[in-house]
Amino acid sequence: MKTVPSSAVERDLATEVNSRRTFAIISHPDAGKTTLTEKLLYYGGAIQEAGAVRARRGAKAATSDWMEMEKQRGAFCSSRRSPYDRYDGFTLNLLDTPGHADFSEDTYRTVSAADNAVMLVDAAKGLEPQTRKLFEVCRLNGLPIFTFCNKLDRPSLEPLELLDQIEREFDLPTYAVNWPIGSGDAFKGVYHRPTREVHLFDAAVTKESRAKKGEDKSTKGLSVLPVGDATLTERIGEELHAQLMEDIELLDELGSDLDLDAVHAGSLTPVFFGSGMNNFGVQLFLDTFLGYSVRPRGRETSDGVIGPTDDAFTGFVFKLQANMDPRHRDKVAFVRVVSGKFERGMKVTNARTKKAVALSRPSQLFGQDKTVLECGYAGDVIGLNNPGSFAIGDTLYTGKRRVLPPIPTFSPELFAYLRNADTGKYKQFQKGVAELLGEGAVQVMYSRDSLKQDPILAAVGQLQFEVVQARMAQEYGVETTLDMLPFNVARWVEGGWDAVDAAGRIFNAQCVKDVWGAPVLLFKNAWNVDQLVADTPEIGTLSPFSKP
Ligand code: GDP
């Protein structure tokens, strides 16, 4: 029996959703994310966006002006300039997560709006601190993770060493989709397991095509050979050929087919090798990624799971950004569409405020350029003008009331008392702190007994403090000072205050409460955490994240 979609809308939604891939690239600074992003967007058919990303790079080191940084941060790139502009039928939504000095909780929250993550690793350096942090957030969100080992044109770690690091440190099994042939000056290309072909790298040719950038969309100059090709030995040299044959034998022994269910569950990472700068392995990665990655996912709500093709619209605010245009002091709320069809001007309800809101000035961002968005589907990100109607984590919906779960609060590493330098401005001070907290600019904690004491700001990046102080001064007219606290680790006590009281006097940690009143312990280092858990079992389980 033939199944006929129950309505044209449903068919339309399914087609749109199936063709969307929404992903974030996570990496440590300098691993090559900006470069890779440019290449990916280039294939996605959006050369303009690539330019915008490039412009950002120049600005990245040039300023410590927080407003500039706010502007640079978190551009969202879609591969789509028009509904017809697609790559191989796919619309790519790339959520930018800056991995730089301006690292903040925004970065984490952005990951929660993605469906897939690309973990970019510098093949010479292996896993680095920021990769680790962001990986944890991907895991918390249950995202499928695709690994791209970059800069193979430079002397690199052995591929087995890279896989081993991921397996050991992240407890994440790997599946090498392709395998590098040599590295550094001797880098000859990759063996692609699904097709048993060798993609040859020719530095000279790619350099030339890089010079002609814009014209070369293909892998021009690259040769693709079946692994049994008679000319292969001559092309890559006897030694590398022998090594490759050995490696393939090993891979064949190890490897059954890729278990896609495990990939989608986030419990197996497909691994790729290449060089973003030389545009080598990027298209191969992209094509394979599109086949393996997941379409926009359904989400848990207060009323059961909602699927991406459900007729009812749902979405959630995952990021607020102020002063993108300093002339207007504008504020933008970024909404990730979870289900249904978004249309310009549509009326939705904000589940938190219970108010109806018309989404009248929706835009999509291309680097610094905004374009008005007429419609959107699950997986898309919409920028909404936010005169104060939206807060981080807000659910917007049509139809039956449904609330998406709050975005978890992420483990801060920097703590400071925020002091009001002008006691005459108590009210403004309180208002500013409350509003910046609502915007998710920073986390706020208090001592156990009193809300009257100065708030403790808790952040994952120094920039968050700078933003708070600058905005307190500019927007609320309050000068503030910071008193840094000597802690670097926060742990939420899962057993609540009962567990804290049962534990008795706690050494080497300060006990504070978060905005929900839950107990949080602040430690100098991870060693002190382990020590407390070992010495004081009454404290129970400690978690690096709040569980809202
Ligand atoms: P980001 O900080 O992760 O955004 O990294 P960038 O894309 O800005 O790159 C950092 C540096 O690494 C720059 O100097 C790039 O030119 C360089 N780079 C990026 N990709 C490659 C690559 O594939 N090979 C080599 N040799 N250098 C690269």
From TrEMBL:
GO MF entries: GTP binding; GTPase activity; translation release factor activity, codon nonspecific
Pfam families named among the record's database cross-references: EF-G_D2 (PF22042), GTP_EFTU (PF00009), RF3_C (PF16658)
Gene3D superfamilies, A to Z: P-loop containing nucleotide triphosphate hydrolases (3.40.50.300), Peptide chain release factor 3, domain III (3.30.70.3280), Translation factors (2.40.30.10)
Keywords carried by this UniProt record: Cytoplasm, GTP-binding, Nucleotide-binding, Protein biosynthesis
Keyword Lipid biosynthesis attached: no
Cellular component terms per the entry's GO annotation: cytosol
Record keyword S-adenosyl-L-methionine present: no
Subcellular location: Cytoplasm
Domain Tr-type G: 18-297
Primary location recorded for the protein, binned into one broad class: cytoplasm
Signal peptide: none
Family, as annotated: Belongs to the TRAFAC class translation factor GTPase superfamily. Classic translation factor GTPase family. PrfC subfamily.
Protein name stated in the entry: Predicted protein
